Amino acid sequence: MDRAQEDREPLKLRERAYDAFTQHLLARDIRPGQFVSQRELVELTSLPLGAIRELIPRLEAEGLIRTVPQRGMQIAHIDLTLIRDAFQFRLCLEKEAVSLFARTASEATLRELRAAHEDILRRAADEITPALVAEAQAVDWGLHDTVIDALGNEIISNAYRVNSIKIRLIREERVRILDSLLVSVMHEHLRILDAFEARDPAAAVAAVEAHIASSRARAIGM
Predict the structure, then answer these.
(1) Which listed site, 70, 93, 107, 180, has its alpha carbon 20 to 30 Å from 46?
(2) What is the mean pLDDT of each run of 10 residues along the chain (222 residues)?
(3) How many angstroms separate the CA atoms of 157 and 164, rounded?
(4) What b/e string do you get for 124-154 counting C-beta neighbours within 10 Å, with b at 16 or more?
(5) CB–CB of 163/90 below 8 Å?
(6) Which helix (H) or strand (E) holds 136?
(7) Cβ–Cβ contacts within 10 Å for residue 2, how many?
(8) How many CB atoms lie within 10 A of CB 111?
(9) Nearest to residue 78, comparing CAs of 64, 94, 88?
């Protein structure tokens, strides 16, 4: 193994540890507010202790865990402050992103996004199954990720991904896309797509503001 490959191995291990942690977090194998030890994270991720120790500072910096003196590490706790901060940050990033996307997105991309949403709605008219709900969640986040990534700014995309983990935790804990919400969420997205297709940045911003405000209200129980 050459020196360059040796240098890449610890990086790969750190990324694997991060990916494993976030996957288990979003799968609710560990829960917001739960206390965990380094040994428990080793068992959960099946990765060595060294990788977990190197992971912890990153998780702390991203606000996904915090160290509580004499108690250990606590997974981010879902409260009104986190909800407010996460949704405000999301809105700041997405307003800029949708404004640009309305002007620059290709017709093929817009057709693909609309087709995915309309397919969900068509199938929901017959029966809303757990599998369809999971697919709707993926379509939901796929739209937002596509819009953010279209900015072509890796710093923004990375920051958005971290914030998305917090938003998803909030939604898993407070209000997932349930049967009763699936159709309304898809229609909120279609209004955003209408603005994109009209090449109307102001309408796109207004539509995403309404969508995020609706999501935030559901999260805080309004």
Answers:
(1) 70
(2) 49 86 90 92 91 92 90 90 95 97 98 98 93 92 97 96 92 61 93 98 98 91 63
(3) 10
(4) beeebeeebbebbbebbeebbeebbbbbeee
(5) yes
(6) helix 130-149
(7) 7
(8) 12
(9) 64
CATH of domain 80-219: 1.20.120.530
Read off the pTM: 0.84
CATH class of 3-75: mainly alpha
Backbone phi and psi for residue 36, each to the nearest 5 degrees, phi listed first: -135, 155
Start-to-end Cα distance in the chain? 58
- By CB atoms closer than 10 A (0-12, 13-18, 19+), residue 4 is exposed
For residue 35, the SS3 value is: strand
**CB neighbour class for 221 (10 Å; exposed up to 12, middle 13-18, buried from 19):** exposed
Tokens of 141: 């986040």
Residue extents of the structural domains in the chain: 3-75, 80-219
Q: Are 174 and 218 in contact (CB under 8 A)?
A: yes
Cα 206 to chain centroid, rounded: 21
In the chain, the amino acid numbered 171 is: R
Give the pair of three-digit tokens for residue 188: 């909120």
**SS3 call for 176:** coil
How confident is the model at residue 28, as a pLDDT? 86
Q: Cα(162)–Cα(22) distance, rounded to whole angstroms?
A: 10
